[in-house]
Amino acid sequence: MDVFDTDGHEQVVFCQDRVTGLKAIIGIYSTALGPALGGTRFYPYENEAAALADVLKLSRGMAYKNALAGLDLGGGKAVIWGDPARVKSEGLLRAYGRFVESLRGRYYTACDVGTYVADMDVIARETRFVTGRSVEHGGAGDSSVLTAWGVFQGMRAAAEHTWGTPSLRGRTVGVAGLGKVGKYLTGHLVEDGATVVATDVNEAALEWARTTHPSVQLVPDTTALITSDIDVYAPCALGGALNDETVGVLRAKVVTGAANNQLAHSGIGKLLEERGVLYTPDYVVNAGGVIQVADEIEGFNFERAKLRATGIFETTRRILALAGDEGVPPAVAADRLAERRMAEVGRLRAIYLN
């Protein structure tokens, strides 16, 4: 592999601490709008190449997400290679925090798959550049709260575009993944009057649904979910949920979910369009979490952050309108808006200030 073949990234940092077993990669895609902000994913990748591929995709997505969220922040991401249930420790997290600190503010980290608020508090013992901390330590707490709220706002905009009303009442929504975000999203959907069909690989998550929302219909797997009679598909687990196989059998008319990198390859957006499925770009609708943790940097205020996350409704409407006007898939329209902001605002860095 050509080490500079990193899809235009500014910086890729490999971090290792043999004593604790830390193996991490930090990807900084762009700092055109400000310091790169993105979470740390702790995951047992099959190999080093898979870990690198994931961090490169995720960090690029964060740059576009932060740009469309109106934040003065660039895009970055980190992955820790390993099974968090087996190797996560205070020493490993603190070693990772030292590497984050060594970047001197070029990268701010936060929670992601496999990492939690308590982990951010540990990492923060070694670095100033961490968000998503506990309320007890002046942070915002669980960022999945506003992630789910933003996804719900994006789904409302998609419903308005498709059926003429910004509500999911009377619609059937299939939620794949009842984790941190999927749980909150399910609550919003039930409250809005939607019928929810859901699945998860974790039995504890399924039991949560049975106990908390007994009206939710549970199915055995994602295949059963996407082939059922649903109006909206909400992927809320890992990326790559939309591929040639799943798109071919998908029955929903709208796809709006919290997972990152939902399209398995660039041609999937066009394939969805050809099948008459409206896809709201994941990095647009799931930006509520990064909005929440970004707010910590200036001193967290939940109502201020929620108001900005509510704006995902208008951002999604704008993207869907632009896609229609320019005759392109929504993902292309979203990319154009993000790139325009990064170019226009980033250009100001070239203006010398004494």
Name of the CATH superfamily of the largest domain: NAD(P)-binding Rossmann-like Domain
- What is the level 1 CATH name of the largest domain? Alpha Beta
Largest sheet: 6 strands, mixed
The low-confidence runs, each spanning 5 or more residues with pLDDT under 50, are none
Give the name of the CATH architecture of the largest domain: 3-Layer(aba) Sandwich
Beta-strand percentage range: 5-15%
Termini gap: 42 Å
Domain Glutamate/phenylalanine/leucine/valine/L-tryptophan dehydrogenase C-terminal: 141-350
GO molecular function: nucleotide binding; oxidoreductase activity, acting on the CH-NH2 group of donors, NAD or NADP as acceptor
Binding site for NAD(+): 177-182
InterPro entries: Aminoacid_DH-like_N_sf (IPR046346), Glu/Leu/Phe/Val/Trp_DH (IPR006095), Glu/Leu/Phe/Val/Trp_DH_C (IPR006096), Glu/Leu/Phe/Val/Trp_DH_dimer (IPR006097), Glu/Leu/Phe/Val_DH_AS (IPR033524), Glu/Phe/Leu/Val/Trp_DH_bac/arc (IPR016211), NAD(P)-bd_dom_sf (IPR036291)
